[in-house]
Amino acid sequence: MGESDPLSKHSLRRSALTLRAQVDAATREAFAERLAIEGVALARRAFARSVAIFWPVGTEPDTLLMAQALTYHEIIVALPCAGAMGEPLTFRAWKQGQALVEGAMRIPEPAPGARSVQPDLIFTPMTAFDRRGYRIGYGGGYYDATLAQIRASRSAPAIGIAFAAQEIARVPEEEHDQPLDLILTEGELIDCSLAWR
Asked: CA 2, CA 177: separation in Å to the nearest integer?
């Protein structure tokens, strides 16, 4: 994998976030419903007993209906908990209605006393993506470190969630970047492994 220009990633991130913010309310609502259906289907396909989602921030796709659907089907839902920048995330079990605390990145997360979970399937946020499965996050390196750590010892598919408007031709990947297995948008499920065949 090649080296990338951080300024290039910054510019791509900014452009993708602008496009994401322009997605209309009807598309957002339909995608939240699609996530609830597809989330359960993908969890079953992966034989997942526990699934990590992310708490939706700002204009990110809404994952909370998916959380409800997973819980209804007796699949454990976990939220990420951030520590130091670039360190792997930890995951704690959560059900809607349970109290959350503000985490290191000022994103709600389960309290430290919540049960620790090793998810069988991980849904990841992103600001931009390409069809090879490379993503641009928010610059903290949390998900790359997390996926690298998990993949060193076990299998847990990683699925990116984004609007189609966030797709770019090619993410300028770096050596530490971890590609996703699948990407789910409001219109399609992209099998990133096909890009390598």
From this structure: 10
DSSP string, 173-196: --TT----SEEE-SS-EEEGGGGG
Start-to-end CA span in the chain (Å): 17
At 91, list the tokens.
């995951």
Residues of the chain with pLDDT below 70 are 1-7, 196-197
Tokens read off for 60: 């990110």
Cα(2)–Cα(125) distance, rounded to whole angstroms? 23
pLDDT tens digits for range 31-78: 999 999 999 999 999 999 999 999 999 999 999 999 999 999 999 999
Residue 149, SS3 per DSSP: helix
Give the start-end residues of each E strand in 9-104.
50-52, 76-81, 90-93, 100-102
At residue 116, φ and ψ (nearest 5 deg) are -75, 140
Domains in the chain, please, with CATH? Answer: 6-196 (3.40.50.10420)
Q: Strand locations in the chain, DSSP E?
A: 50-52, 76-81, 90-93, 100-102, 108-110, 121-124, 128-129, 135-136, 158-161, 182-184, 189-191
CA angle 42–47–49, rounded 5-degree value: 100
